[in-house]
Amino acid sequence: MKTITFNNRESSIIGMGTWRIGEGDLLKTQKEIEILKYGLNHGINVIDTAEMYGNGKAEKAVGRAIKNFDREKFQIISKFYPYHATPELIKESLEKSLKRLGTDYLDSYLLHWRGQTPLAETVAGLEAVKKEGLIRSWGVSNFSTDDMKELAAVPNGENCQINEDLYNLTSRGVEFSLLPYQKEHNIDFVGYSPFGSDNNDFLNLKDEVGDVAASKGISIFQLLLAWCIRSGEVLSIPKSSNPDHFVSNLQAIDVDFTADELELLDSIYPKPDHEEPLESI
Questions:
Q1: 3-204+233-255, which class in CATH?
Q2: Mean pLDDT, residues 138-165
Q3: Could you say which of 53, 109, 167, 192 is catalytic?
Q4: Is there a catalytic annotation at residue 81?
């Protein structure tokens, strides 16, 4: 299985997203928990969640899934609302997340998106909980290149370890300047929604993509996920609440592309040639 250096550790190149997990009935939630366990048992060692997801229900489901696993062998990322971005509210939100997750630390804690709180205050709050040992690193989500530069200019802003943004074949805006910036400054990139949003509503794929997948003998979803991780420098976090889909995701990790195939996909969905507002879901 391909791996990646992520958050200063060797990691699986895909993680497990948890948007909408834990929001259904008891049986549905139990199936979702079993898939998280399956992933941990098959080498996927990053789980991405947030206090926003189901108002804590996703974190509770993750907490149930990880109960009997060695906590040092996988990473948990969670995120806090921008209106919880003051030092006091960061700690309060973090403690609630830790309780729901049943763990005493997070591997990384991210500001979910920019709000009204000055970045300097947010960074101070994150540095404080890091010093307490409640988190091992911190980062941001849905930040543009300009946002990242502004963040780097505040005290301790250079300690940002992760930025998480929308990234898939049809949403490539991060490639123009954000990915190069993060690589230059050793900030890990997490790409969310490789398949679009719920029920893939955010994707409007052209028929030619299906032709490429068919020619490789893989599914469209395997192509989409394999494309996101093709560089070996992006951690992608597909969500799957279906066991068959999860197995398909695992198989996609080892899919490679020829130069001709990548050129063809670039012709269908061109890489950006200028700075543009980043999309988010």
A1: alpha beta
A2: 98
A3: 53
A4: no
